[in-house]
Amino acid sequence: MSTPSTPPEPASSPEDRATRALADAVREIEHHVAAAGWDAPVRVFALVRTQAALAAEPGLAEQLAPEVLEAARADDQHLTSVEQEGVPAAEDLERLLGGLSWPATVDGAAVTVERVVLPPGAEEDLPSDPDAALAALLAHPQRQDVRLAVGVLRGGPAWCAVRTRAHDADDAVGQGPDLVPGLVEAVRATLL
C-alpha cells in the first residue's frame, strides 16, 4: 500500500474544488464507517452538492451541523453523503454495483468494502479450487485486511481511501485519486 497522501490543496477552479470536496467526503465516509469497526458489509452512499440539496429541501438545514452549513455556503462544490439503506442483496460486489443507478439529482456515489489482499506473487500459490483458495487466503501469514472507500463524481474526479486493519488509525489511511482503479470504474458505471 502506498503511504498516506494529503488531499489536494484548496483551489479556486470548479474542477479543483470538486476534487477537494470529493476527497473530503470520501475521507468523512471512511472515518464514519471505521467508527463502526471491522467485518462490516458493503455500504453505499449517494453524494449530493449540499447547496443544491438545501435549496431543494430547506428542512435539511436542521439536520446538518453548523460547520457543515458554513462550509456549504462557502463552496458550491461541498458534498453531503447520504447512506443508502435497504441496498438490494447481491451475490457479490460486482452484481450489487451493476444493479445500481442514480437519478440526475445525485452528483456522485461512494462505496465502502472490506477485502483481503496478499503481497505480489503470493496469489500464484493459491489452490485452483475456489473453496480451498479462500481457506488458504484467509490463513495466509502475509494477508492484509483492508477497507476501501471509493467515491466518484458524475463526469468528474474520483477519490479513494484505504485503511489496513494492521495500521488501523485515522492518520494511517492512504488516499489518492486512483488507488483502486477497478472499483473506481465500477462505481463510475453506476452514474451512467
Supply the number of structural domains: 1
Low-confidence stretches: 1-8
Strand content: 15-25%
User: Biggest sheet, strands in spatial order?
Assistant: 2-1-3-4-5-6
Share of helix among residues? 25-40%
Structural Rg: 18 Å
Mean of all residue-level pLDDT scores: 88
**What gap, in angstroms, lies between the N and C termini?**
30 Å
CA-based shape: elongated
Number of helices: 6
**Helix-strand makeup class:** alpha+beta
List the helices and strands and how they pair.
Layout: H1 14-35, E1 43-49, H2 50-56, H3 66-74, E2 79-83, H4 93-98, E3 108-117, H5 130-139, E4 144-153, E5 158-164, E6 174-176, H6 181-189
Antiparallel strand pairs: 1-2, 1-3, 3-4, 4-5, 5-6
Give the structure's gist in a few sentences.
With 192 residues, this protein is of the alpha+beta class. The chain has six helices and six strands; from the N terminus they run αβααβαβαβββα.
